[in-house]
Fold this sequence. Notes:
The chain is of the alpha+beta class and about 290 residues long.
Amino acid sequence: MQFVSYNIQYGKGQDGLVDLERIAREVAGADIIALQEVDRFWPHTGMLDQVQILNDCLPDYYWSFGPGVDIHIAETLPADRRRRQFGNMVLSRFPILRSRHLLLPKVGSVDALSIQRSAVEATIDCGGTRLRVYSVHLCHLASASRLPQVEQLLRIHRSAVHEGAPMCGDLSGIPYEAGIHDQAVPHHAIMMGDFNCQPDSEEYDLLVGARSDYGGRVSPEDGLVDAWVAAGNDRGEGATSDVNDAPATLDYCFISPALRDRVQNARVDADATGSDHLPLWVQIKL
């Protein structure tokens, strides 16, 4: 199966044009897609409903969207365009059985721009194998603002099975229980997105485990593994964006350790031009 993560910068490409059809072409062929910076009804993108446009461009996919930013604007606007949203999306060729929108810790600011960040969790039936797939976007401000978000993501991952499905237990008193799927929560997760940190950061170490003095990482079974490394790539390679005009690795695919031997390859599409980031592709045999 092919997974791709892409911070689409609301479709604004390297040519300065907003083109969601280009984004759709650049992720076409993936089985599961994690997008970040998808917006709805903002003036700088022509008041477009980008969720609907992406759905129209990729009609064979199931989808789930969660806005970190969700604000009411003016009563003078049409009723269906009064809410401006900005967030993450998961698209899948396979049914999304259920999804959750998870807000991450936020630090307020009276100076630098501070944006509510979030993750969308989608439980997907991949032809008999079920996975929790996350589209994640962490804070751009500083390491101090991202570390609590990473800690929250790890808590979410580790507690998912314990918490159970969003609706679980005896559903006999609910009139639509016939449409609710098996309540089992998958143990295995794939967490993709723009983590806004580089591989030498404290955030990265927290996600994949501290470096051992004897080589490798101290990675627990209920932790995460970097799929780029599991594919045999050098972690010093694979830049997906830039910081202060220098190449930077900001986008990742982290996986449950039990999946690490199933990663077949990972690559960055350096030919993509639809955003200020590049798409990260990972192939996993399920």
